[in-house]
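Ops channel
N.P.: pipeline sanity check, posting one input/output pair.
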């Protein structure tokens, strides 16, 4: 399988205005590189529905990425709009990934219940919302890493995606 191509999009008003350093984006870059996957692009945008929506559409439709990881904007604060922007752009949801992340996070903190993160597919691109804290974003990504290459194989309609599956009787 070809290397995964990952886009990392930090959603933060303060980081977009250089009032606070982005720590989550670089933490995700480090994990992605440790998997020997390619970073296609990184960007910091404000918590603005139109900007986030347009960026997700542009990145997904560019065909330069297999997966877009967002970090930030998934909580209860009034300006947390990442799940809404994601739902707007995806063709279908992939709730199992979000459920798995929340389930594992609940083992660490009850605050995981406050995550509104969603995961979905636009054409052949998987969009995954991660929390804004570097620790939580990293922990959540680690939960789903074991299935990401297979997910992308399925999206690419790669014949190798069926290898190892037991055929129906």
């Amino acid at each position: 399988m070809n290397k995964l191509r990952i886009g990392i999009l930090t959603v933060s008003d303060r980081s977009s205005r250089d009032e606070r350093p982005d720590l989550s984006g670089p933490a995700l870059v480090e994990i992605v590189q440790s998997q020997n996957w390619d970073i296609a692009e990184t960007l910091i945008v404000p918590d603005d529905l139109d900007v986030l929506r347009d960026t997700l559409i542009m990145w997904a439709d560019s065909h330069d990425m297999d997966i877009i990881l967002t970090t930030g904007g998934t909580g209860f604060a009034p300006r947390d709009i990442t799940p809404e922007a994601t739902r707007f752009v995806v063709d279908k949801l992939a709730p199992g990934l979000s459920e798995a992340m929340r389930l594992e996070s609940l083992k660490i903190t009850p605050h995981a219940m406050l995550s509104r993160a969603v995961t979905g597919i636009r054409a052949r691109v998987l969009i995954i919302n991660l929390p804004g804290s570097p620790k939580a974003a990293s922990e959540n990504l680690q939960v789903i890493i074991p299935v990401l290459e297979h997910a992308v194989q399925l999206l690419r309609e790669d014949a190798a995606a069926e290898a190892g599956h037991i055929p129906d009787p």
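N.P.: looks fine end to end. The chain has a mean pLDDT of 95.
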